[in-house]
Amino acid sequence: MDTVSPAEIAVNRAIEAKAGEYAPLDLRRAQENLDAAKQAMNDEEYEQAHRLAEAAQEDARLAEVKAQSETAREQAQEIQSTIETLRQEAEQRDPAR
Fold first, then answer.
1. Handedness of CA 62, 58, 6, 49 (dihedral sign)
2. Gap between the Cα atoms of 22 and 39, Å rounded
3. What pLDDT is stored for residue 51 in this prediction?
4. 62-80 residue pLDDT tens
5. Distance (Å, rounded) from C-alpha 47 to C-alpha 24?
6. C-alpha span between 17 and 12 (Å, rounded)
7. Count of other CB atoms within 10 angstroms of residue 24
8. In degrees, to the nearest 5, what angle opens at C-alpha 91 toward C-alphas 87 and 94?
9. Per-residue pLDDT reduced to its tens digit, 17-28
10. Reduced to 3 states, what is the DSSP secondary structure of residue 97?
11. pTM for this prediction
């Protein structure tokens, strides 16, 4: 299972990064490739299993990065909104500013 293990780890990381919400197609492709890699291992088609596991790992990494990027964008928007709220509150307290 050494061929498949890194792909499984990558898929799990993508899931933890909320790729199901932010990059569902990439995550699904990674999961499908992982499942196919496991089946190829069971069928003793090791070269095919290796290629599928690599594809699963790449797709999972892409899904993870997309999810992380979207999460960071949302956090930046929240921070910007908080800054704007604080700025408005400060102006209300001290209109001379």
1. positive
2. 28
3. 98
4. 999 999 999 999 999 999 9
5. 27
6. 9
7. 13
8. 135
9. 999 999 999 999
10. coil
11. 0.82
The 3-state secondary structure of 29-90 reads HHHHHHHHHHHHHHCCCHHHHHHHHHHHHHHHHHHHHHHHHHHHHHHHHHHHHHHHHHHHHH
pLDDT score of 1 more than 60: no
Q: How far is CA 12 from the centre of its chain?
A: 9
Q: Please state, in angstroms and rounded to a whole number, the distance separating the CA atoms of residues 55 and 69.
A: 21
Q: Which two tokens mark 16?
A: 């933890």
The gap from C-alpha 46 to its chain's centroid, in whole angstroms, comes to: 27
Mean predicted confidence (pLDDT) in 34-46: 97
Tokens matching residue 14: 């993508």
| Contacts (Cβ under 8 Å, ≥6 apart) of 17 | 63, 64, 67, 68, 71
Token pair 């990059």 in the structure block, residue: 23
Identify the residue whose tokens are 């999961």: 31
Paired tokens of 79: 């921070």
